[in-house]
Each structure stands twice: as C-alpha cells, then as structure tokens.
Design brief:
Elements: E1 4-9, E2 16-18, E3 24-28, E4 31-37, H1 38-41, E5 49-50, E6 58-62, E7 68-73, H2 74-83, E8 87-92, E9 99-103, H3 105-122, E10 128-134, H4 139-154, E11 158-164, H5 173-186, E12 191-200, E13 203-210
Parallel strand pairs: 6-9, 10-11
Antiparallel strand pairs: 1-4, 2-3, 3-4, 5-8, 6-7, 8-9, 11-13, 12-13
C-alpha cells in the first residue's frame, strides 16, 4: 500500500465525508483536509481536474447517465460522487460555474485509451517505396519494374520512380522523361502523379500516389 497523502484547504462549515476506497474528507470552519491514496488519485488525473483537485466553490453537475443535476456546492458534489463510488471530474473548467460529471474516471480513461489504440491500429501508414530504372533499360527489366510499381500502389504505398543516368547518358535526359511518362500512363488507373518528372543531379524523379478508395 502506498503512503497516504494529506492536503488541507480552508472551508466555510464542517462536514465529514467517507467512501469505500480509502478516501476520507474532513472539513471544518477553518480547514478542509483530504486523505487520498496516491496510486488512485494521481495516476489518472493528468488530463482533467478530479475530486479534491477541483477548486471551485460550486459546480454544475452532470450525473453518471448524462442527466442534468444542477448547480451544487463543491462539498455536496464531492459527496454525491463518493456515494456513487465514482469520481467528480471537471469536464468544462472554463464554464461559469465549471461543469463536473460524476463518473468512474479510471474506467473512462481505460475506454479512451482502448479507442485511441484501435484507431492507431486501423490507420494505414503510407510508405514511400522506390523503384530505379536505367535510361537504357531492356523491355523485360521494364516489365519487372512495372509489376513492382503496381504491387506497391495496390498496397497503398507511394512510389518514387527514378531514372539514373551514368556518364554521358545525362545528355539524353529526354529518354528518362519518356520512360517515366510511359510508366505514369500504364498505372494511371491506380494512381495520380504527385510529383511530375524532374531532373535532380544525375537522376530524374517522379512520385506516384495511390488513389484513395471510397
């Protein structure tokens, strides 16, 4: 069991609050003491103010099922959350008064993390594949490269198509342009040209992006 943390604040009148999972709130005319187990209350409170972290004197309460309960003093709101074995969560701190919902915050964060994890799992990470061509490429080699381009596009990846020039081949850059133009026409049903052929150093580069399916 982790140590118990104590926090003191001023209060107007005296109330003693207790709940079923190790929290005791003692209030009096000149003090407001909250005892909490660190493991529960501080691990899950990074994104919202919860329970004793809420500083407002009164809050607008939304119940566990979304029902509007109305404006209550913070002590009464805390007691309602305790009686329900739940947490009081400040969901709209900028509102006047702040809006707080009674919920199981640990369960809420768990469900949110599950949804975020599922969303990340379903996201398609687009890679940029690269296929090289020679300016004097043979037809058999060209068909092999073409099949690779088609495969990558069907898998949802972008393809960087490059024609390399050696030595004096750079003087015939138009050959590379024709190769890439032919390629873009043959895969036009699968992709769009994101970047038109452009000479960079001793290579002519074109980028193809797969068409999105509706």
């Amino acid at each position: 069991m982790r140590p118990i943390e104590h926090e003191a604040r001023s209060s107007d009148d005296g109330v003693a609050l207790t709940n079923g999972y190790g929290m005791r709130v003692l209030t009096g005319p000149h003090f407001y003491c909250v005892e909490t187990n660190i493991w529960r209350w501080h691990v899950i409170s990074r994104e919202h103010q919860i329970n004793d972290e809420i500083r407002a004197r009164e809050v607008r309460i939304v119940g566990p099922e979304g029902e509007q309960i109305g404006i209550k003093p913070i002590r009464e709101a805390l007691q309602m959350a305790i009686d329900a074995s739940m947490d009081l969560v400040n969901v709209a701190p900028q509102a006047k008064p702040p809006v707080c919902r009674i919920m199981d915050y640990g369960k809420f964060r768990y469900e949110q993390q599950k949804k975020e994890k599922e969303a990340r799992k379903n996201q398609k990470i687009v890679d940029l594949k690269e296929v090289w061509f020679r300016s004097n490429i043979e037809e058999n080699d060209y068909q092999t490269k073409l099949r690779n381009v088609v495969k990558f596009l069907k898998e949802g990846d972008k393809v960087k198509c490059s024609v390399r020039f050696r030595g004096r081949e750079i003087a015939h850059a138009a050959i590379g342009q024709r190769i890439l133009d032919r390629l873009s026409k043959e895969v036009a049903e699968l992709c769009s040209v994101e970047r038109v052929p452009k000479l960079e150093g001793r290579s002519m580069i074109m980028i193809l992006a797969p068409k999105t399916t509706s």
